[in-house]
Amino acid sequence: MAGRSGGFGGRRSGGGSSGRRHGSLGSGRSRKQKSPEEAASPDAARVKAIGLLARRDFASKELKGRLAQAGFDSGAAETAVTELAEERLVDDARYVEAAVLSRVAKGQGPVRIALELKRLGISPDLIEPAVDAKSPDWADRAAALRERRFGRALPDDPRERARQVRFLLYRGYSMTHVRTALGRVVDDLDEADLEAGEADGDDG
Length: 204
Description:
This protein is mainly alpha-helical. It is 59% helix and 0% strand. The chain has helices spanning 36-39, 42-55, 60-69, 74-86, 92-105, 110-119, 124-131, 136-150, 158-171, 175-182, 191-200. The radius of gyration is 21 Å and the shape is elongated. The two termini are 33 Å apart.
């Protein structure tokens, strides 16, 4: 599908970039005051929504939330976003596709990606096929990420093994992917090893 690309982050400052980017999880902004007539107006909400979409792409629930923060009633926001979805100016399937590609490029795994999309209110019916956590590609990506970060040689020291395990888990890979990336060296890790890795705190 042709769509708007970008990550979950907001628009970059400076540099004249015009690309759309996917939003972060919540903005913490307070609701703005509008007149009752404007707050209840789907047309005014639509104008505001189009202005937001001109800067970056939004999932439908996220966009409704931003309209609510801008002071629009839920009914006006719902009508505006529904109309935009009918016109495919808002498209959750397109949003998910672009967001997954963006997160994969950053080295994130399916567990983390799926969780963030779920927090944005996107339907599991769209998330699950887009993420496809059972795909063998994820294990290959986990192995490539581990090698880029720590080098080709597999770790012998239990603390280093635990550190690498925690790094991959933090990035959003499953334990199945981690075992593939690290091979049998993971099998003899015990709880104490993982706690030692946690104490090292190298999850970046």
